[in-house]
Sequence to fold (357 residues):
Amino acid sequence: MTEPLKIGKHVVRYPLIQGGMGVRISAGRLAGHVAKCGGVGLVAAAGIALNSGLYNGKNFFQAEAEAFKAELRKAYEIAPDGVIGVNVMVALSDFEPLVKAAIEGGAKVIVCGAGLPMGLPELTASHPDVALVPIVSSLRAAQLIARKWRKSYQRLPDAVVVEDPDTAGGHLGEKMENIGTGEYDQYATVREIKEFFRDEYGVAVPVIAAGGVWDRADFEHALAEGADGVQMASRFVCTVECDASDEFKQRYIECAKEDIGLIMSPAGLPGRAILNNQEKIRQYDLDKHTPCRMGCLKKCSYKESGERFCIVTALDRAQRGDVETGLVFCGTNAWKADRITTVQAIFDELFGSATEK
Ligand SMILES: Cc1cc2nc3c(=O)[nH]c(=O)nc-3n(C[C@H](O)[C@H](O)[C@H](O)COP(=O)(O)O)c2cc1C
Fold:
């Protein structure tokens, strides 16, 4: 019998968070359906305006906040009582307004990665019931956040996601040269972080494992190794409900294990993606002579010096179906996708067939 997961004031029937996937891979539809099935559904903030109809080429930041709230509304239409939250990357230029928009849109959980969300409790102080969940890859990062939050805001994270750089999709919180060396131990990190909260503060903070969880055996393994739940992203791409184009989903179905690898993002972080088209991604920007138009990231080598490629538009192209010149982020397990399924079928497989319809 799978135990429910409590994150702050919010309880979900199954200990599963659907990982935030930026640039409208996880928007309102996917998040709503995951929440309806009894998990935490996350709308990801990054680049959500681009394929929303709200961006007119000039109003990026305003459209981001509006599109973000519109997708939260969509998710709540699907699952009015569901636990619906957001993923906001700390590296985004508009991190603070997006956190504000998330609160206005009724997000119950705010998950933050790609940087340490040191000031997050201050931004959400007027809504103490909103659960705050940092994503980290090391004990040290969890300690830095917890000590700062306790000292400055008298609160601790409501849960911590431990993301495994060796398997997770998208941007990774580890140096390129340290990934895939076999030295990183995801579940040792999970246990160290649990112990840290117990020893230092006497509390049981739920620790969630992210990266490489695909099927029921992976889920059970994560719990047996000490995690309180899992965050899964790549597995939800090939669902009817995922907000990406059919072509994006098809790339997952067609890709081979060897096609998945690491790229250096202009954000200065490594990222995991399907790797057959890197030159075309760069060539697209060269051909179009497009300088950075949106300034979506605080730090970006494309914005600063035209180096590499514009990541948000590359991800957006793929989301819309141009997988020739677009960037397809994915975790190491994406090659396992062999058909389009439904969110409900994934829940049935993971937790038995007695899940909510
Ligand atoms: C297409 C894609 C986009 C992602 N976008 C984001 C994002 O915007 N913010 C974030 O914190 N993590 C992002 N991630 C990471 C996931 O939320 C998740 O933690 C990770 O992929 C888990 O590993 P899995 O894909 O093996 O389940 C993304 C992952 C994928 C596959």
